[in-house]
Amino acid sequence: MDPRVSELFGAAAAAQKSGGRKTAKNGSKKFKNRSARYPKASNNPPYLPPEAEEGNIEYKLKLVNPTQCRFEHLATQMKWRLQEGRGEAVYQIGVEDNGLLVGLTEEDMKASLKTLRRMAEKVGADITVLREREVDHNSDEPYRIAEVLVRKVPDDQQFLDLRVAVLGNVDSGKSTLLGVLTQGELDNGRGRARLNLFRHLHEIQTGRTSSISIEILGFDSRGGVVNYSESRTAEEICESASKMITFIDLAGHHKYLKTTIFGLTSYCPDFAMLVVSANTGIAGTTREHLGLAMALKVPIFIVVSKVDLCTKGTVERTVRQLERILKQPGCNKVPMLVSSTDDAVTAAQKFAQSPSITPIFTLSSVSGESLDLLKVFFNILPPLSDSKEQEELMQQLTEFQIDEIYTVPDVGTVVGGTLYSGICREGEQLVVGPTDAGQFRELAVCSIQRNRSGCRVLRAGQAATLALGDFDRSLLRKGMVMVSPEMNPTICWRFEAEIVLLFHAKTFHKGFQVTVHVGNVRQTATVEALQGKDELRTGEKAGVRFKFIKHPEYLKCATFRGLGVSLNTWFGANAVD
């Protein structure tokens, strides 16, 4: 187990040994203390891990009346921590560098927070006290420590951006939950909140998502929610927000599974939110979506919805179901039930640090129960990549992956997708391809929009739409790339991949035709050869050579987040040639 997980749950394990056998006064085993079964985030150890030189977490014992020279040094240090966290930093006040929780008196704590606020103003940031707690001391006067979030939008960005893919079985409440979060109004119990998310008439009529839709939820520099309840347009949300959560609403029905996989592979989500209905439990495509997210190594957390329709016992039974699945050898996850603001803060921080931890929320989109805990979680959730990784990607040549193609009146052809590497500016000259003949054609980027608002510069990892003017739309298709001419892009008809066959009713062998997903590429391919084997069965791994059937694609000799799908066949693939 990851050492950070052991530190986090050390107190919970001790509680389980000492109090796990205790029952209620009536002696019934059904009333056992559930804290023995779930690792609670509130059971904190009396120390923290030693402070790391890198990263966005800073420990300060106290900040009382620093000299001017010391103050300038502290402000410079805050700039460094903000840069490491891509605009966010967490300060632990009352903690020594070795992680010992010392605590401060009320007077010293007020003075330290005042100094921290001055430091934030110096660098153009805002602070929010996430939580405070007392530390045991042999003194009548209470000693406390405080955890403070410092947020500042980087000078070269409009806002911080995290992408969250929304998974779950059909009718689990995915679109309704997103409607409540982004619109700021609770649902009426009949799906009113989800109507603004649907893109097609048949989705409104059936109440089922069949396409990929994008919704946004903003947070200002002080952690306040910015959504459509106070802003009329997406442009106003982008202007007011310093952090943006971009939700990728995916289909839950099994017949739209390929669309869901395309959303997971091409939109490059940072996290995945699996929505499970409390009254139906783990049903339909829930297991498949969980398996897909794990195969693609997307960190996942779980939301149990519709708790207003069930008894407390039914909700607990659904949570126990999830707990059993998460602890199975194939998952090896550590479930963390979130039931308080303190839990939500700890879950957000530890979730990004360790892939083993899986937070579980229980909420209702009708009554609003525990919705605030999910908002706190999103507000504090840090980005996965650090500033160094971002800089390395930005220094590479431009590569934009095309996921969507539109024709907009008075604008012309527009493509949507993600900038995989480099920097893209208005007016930049790129080449797009490959065509059916394997060629790349020149084009120019006329304008750029992110979350429906104008943007002059696009950086690696950001999703946007690019206007291409009068470029012929018929020459474009999903799966193409727009790259810098200096890259000299090459095409690929055949490639080799190491695959794991997750499930198939029969055997997987030479001559099979499968739909291959590699990044934004989705095309049927034929299995030409298996290395060292004649056939594959469920759970087996092998190197496989594929050949595209219709046209060549642009692939790089690297590890891709990819997945191949055939009828009743799922396998994870890493392209190696």
From TrEMBL:
Residue ranges of domain Tr-type G in the record = 159-388
Matching InterPro entries, A to Z?
A: EF-Tu_GTPase (IPR050055), GTPBP1-like (IPR035531), P-loop_NTPase (IPR027417), T_Tr_GTP-bd_dom (IPR000795), Transl_B-barrel_sf (IPR009000), Transl_elong_EF1A/Init_IF2_C (IPR009001)
Q: What does the record give under GO molecular function?
A: GTP binding; GTPase activity; translation elongation factor activity
Instruction: Tell me where on the tree of life, at the top rank, the source sits.
Output: Eukaryota
Write out the entry's keywords from A to Z: GTP-binding, Nucleotide-binding
Pfam families, alphabetized = GTP_EFTU
Record's compositionally biased regions (Basic residues):
19-37
Q: Which PROSITE patterns match?
A: G_TR_2
Note down the stretches annotated as region Disordered.
1-51
Which family, according to the similarity comment?
Belongs to the TRAFAC class translation factor GTPase superfamily. Classic translation factor GTPase family. EF-Tu/EF-1A subfamily.
Its protein name is: GTP-binding protein 2-like
- Which species? Sinocyclocheilus anshuiensis
